[in-house]
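Much of our argument rests on the idea that a fold can be written as discrete symbols. In the encoding step, the backbone of a single protein was reduced to a row of integers, each denoting a local shape. We regard such an encoding as a compact summary of how the chain folds. The record that follows shows the chain in one-letter code together with its fold in token form:
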Amino acid sequence: MIWKTILAAVIGYLLGCIPSGVLIGRLYGVGDIRKHGSGNSGTTNVLRTLGWLPSVLTLVCDCLKGYVACLIGKHLGGDLGMLTGGICAILGHDFPVFMGFKGGKGIATSLGLIIAINPWIALWEFVIQIVAVALTRYMSVASLITTVAFPVLVAILERNRENFPLFLGAACIASALSLFGHRGNIQRLIRHEENRLDFAKISQVSKKVMDKTNKKQ
């Protein structure tokens, strides 16, 4: 059982190391996305740099890393294997060994873990994220709110589940990793220096990127 959990951890971490944002950035001709914008490889930086479609692709790919890691972990070691695989995928995304340990902040990969735990929690998290972004236009604030909401929702909706302490513990670990990844955003929010999302500018960027892509074709 122990070796299966270890295997789930290794597979999860390696899946998490797949640099979705970097690969999509190169696909769209900007090279290493970490050399643009915030220097992050996650969905938000791709959104600001390349627009809507590349950011959605990044979101889906990063989410799949976490979800597939959970599925493999579940097959190997039940609930413990699933949760271990998911958490390690987040670690791989945040600290990818093949990319100098400079990755993303784990929100999209955490979504894969959340879907594996309970799709209804994922739906609630998605709604909270959208509403928070619409009200504040701070992606970081929305992500921080959903980060805090995750273990709360697990505590409410999964309280009668077998191995509940494992699920709650995994949710707390995932939230702690997200808070750590957003430490810079938190500092900028305190100093009132955090950038809001400019949807008009993002749409303009999207149009330019799509026009450039169409010309290449």
About this structure: The mean pLDDT is 91. The first helix runs from residue 2 to 16. The radius of gyration is 17 Å.
